[in-house]
Amino acid sequence: MRAATSTRPADAAVGAVDTHCPYCALQCGMTLSPAGRASVRIRPRDPSAGGLCQKGWTAAALLGSPARLTTPLVRDGGTLRPASWDEALGLVARRIKEITAERGPDAVAVFGGGGLTNEKAYLLGKFARVALGTSQVDYNGRFCMSSAAAAAHRAFGLDRGLPFPLADLEGADAVLLAGANPAETMPPFLSHLRRATDAGGLIVVDPRRTPTAERAALHLAPAPGTDLALALGILHAAVADGRLDHAYVADRTTGFEEAWRVAAAWWPERVERVTGVAAADQRRAAAILSEAASAYVLTARGAEQHATGVDTVGAWINLALALGLPGRPGSGWGCLTGQGNGQGGREHGQKADQLPGYRRIDDPAARAHVARVWGVEPSALPGPGRSAFELLDALGTSGGPSALLVFGSNPVVSAPHSARVADRLAALDLLVVADIVLSETARAADVVLPITQWAEEDGTLTNLEGRVLLRRRALAPPPGVRTDLEVLHDLAVRLGQPPERFPSDPETVFTELRAASEGGPADYSGVTWDRLRAGERLHWPVPRTPGHQGTPRLFLDRFAHPDGRARFAAVDHRGPAEPPDEEYPLYAITGRVLQHYQSGAQTRRVEELRTAVPEAYVEVHPDTARRAGLCDGATAAVAGRRGRVIATVRCVPSMRPDVVFLPFHFPGAQRANLVTNPALDPVSRMPEFKVCAVRLSPAGEREAQ
Predict the structure, then answer these.
(1) CB atoms within 10 A of CB 240
(2) How far apart are CA 463 and CA 450, in angstroms?
């Protein structure tokens, strides 16, 4: 069995520890030895189904990497130099006080991440609103799950990525994946689709012929930005061919007539002209789903990351509702969460419009409850702030923040229109970054704070099925490294907060989180670390009721709206915010590759992964490359209205001739997000990462260097 090795010793008293992979929302089980060797933890019904992907196998390699930060850094004369913790935190606290005194609390902003543990996400939101008094807090999960969350809230009254256990998918005869490529993003997930795949019931919606699409019985390849039209066409086919579940629609939903008035105009032949997907294939998709004894519709980033992402996900939910899938055992709709704690990270208060327990920050009752737990007056809590890109875009402007604290994110690479974001960061009076390595964002910071990694601390995460997991400390951190909780505690105290208000022990923080979430949509009050240590499988909500075993399956009796019914959404196709034209005739789409994760700040420092995919590339149809004067292996410039990306050409015959694909894990001139469009969904404020207009040409000699 292969293993990744860290040369740094563990605590002498600690043996092999069962823990979880640090990457995607599957949170696969692994065992980490005292020597830092990772192996699979095989347990019945474990999300990993007894396997790890290449990223998981090599996750421990970064623990002993020479790229690790082990001492604070402070900018001095244009360069970062080592400093003591006392100097670094003293500088941060002093500058925050000065900036706040001059410009008010909203002059200081906080940017978090969907990989932070529940405890960190909770304390970070509390730190922003209590220690800083700022409304300017958001996180990179706004770039991942926000459209699906908004669509689920609208349809069901509650958002949980998968409102059923992951293992339920193992009994599915048919699964439609819209905008998902789990063969590369979360490979162990595919084991749960084996039955549907073998039965010829796997349908994949993706403009590319991905490794996931290769496994499908039916691959639907719409033009980028036309996913909503395709969903309307399949819904039309289902209704017109007599596949509507009339009893379910009448008994458990509202709004079908309004939604049908829109979908009635999108007959499959019309949809074929817009999307390029054959009308016969639309009807076949409707038949596969409706005739299956157990069927699921699952969406992911490809459906969400659009300026119409909420409506697009809503259209796929409409299809699931019309077929009577949600809220029934063995069927349903769900969203494949991306980041490791993408679910829990958006539930506990680091999002601009939320308080812990998935409460709305503008709800007086929610404010009163959380303020009571925090020991402050409700009036002292700020209101909603800017969403992620709007926050980054406002940095250093006359009306925006002039200081930013970043925890668990690398927006220089991961944010859309990334050149603009880098300029905004450079305009700040103070940039503080807490990270494990010197990421591209950390390189621009005034103060860099070295923090612990996943295997060096305890904490909880909530995986894609809404199950709360305890990730255990397995190794001692390097000398001089602190946890995020310790950093927040120390800064809060230096800013005048009582020490007990910001505990640094993760179990103590979780106990407070339980109280803050109690009675909220995401109720964790009945979850304890002792229950998790004992191996209980607890899916939220878990109220404090004695003996409550959690809620693995939501909506079986009723949906979360007051009347108990799900809502159809009357949504219509509008197309991408930036369609191709004569100047920029191609669609550019972005995504992940098997070997790398998010901005690549971690995986690009793992030799096995970096060697496998060392640089950015652009996938393009051979004919499209030839027309641009390019061949396989050539260096191309992919230019759009906001910038250009330099990448090596990969000719892929299965690509649509009007589409190019860029992975988004790489820095500098290889950043895919130099060209992506920051156009925002009006509801979720999700940027349109998945489609923008570009042109392709040979890179100049200077650009290629």
Answers:
(1) 15
(2) 26
The residue count of the chain comes to: 705
Angle at 181 between CA 147 and CA 672, to 5 degrees: 70
pLDDT, residue 644, reads 96
Q: Which residues contact 263 (CB under 8 A, 6 or more apart)?
A: 232, 235, 236, 239, 318
Q: What global pTM score does this model have?
A: 0.94
Q: Both tokens of residue 102?
A: 């001059």
CB atoms within 10 A of CB 102: 10
Beta strand spans in 287-341 (E): 295-299, 332-335
Rg (CA), the chain: 24
pLDDT (tens digit per residue) in 108-118: 999 999 999 99
Write out residues in the chain with pLDDT < 70, as ranges: 1-14, 35-50, 701-705
Nearest one of 92, 72, 97, 94 to 82, comparing CA atoms: 72
pLDDT, position 141: 87
- Which residue type is seen at 457? E
| 184-193: burial string, b at 16+ Cβ within 10 Å, e else | bbbbbbbebb
**Interatomic CA distance for residues 278 and 283, integer angstroms:** 9
Q: Are 82 and 72 in contact (CB under 8 A)?
A: yes
Query: Which residues neighbour 699 within 8 Å (Cβ) at sequence distance 6 or greater?
Result: 635, 636, 637, 646
The structure tokens 């022990």 sit at: 505
Distance of CA 166 to the CA centre of its chain: 18
Distances (CA, A) of 336 to 182, 192, 570, 593: 9, 13, 24, 16
Helix (H) or strand (E) segment spanning residue 29: strand 29-32
Query: d(Cα 232, Cα 512) in Å, to the nearest integer?
Result: 45
In degrees rounded to 5, what are phi and psi of residue 474?
A: -120, -25
Residues 6+ apart with CB under 8 A from 339: 24, 25, 113, 114, 115, 140, 141, 144, 345, 598
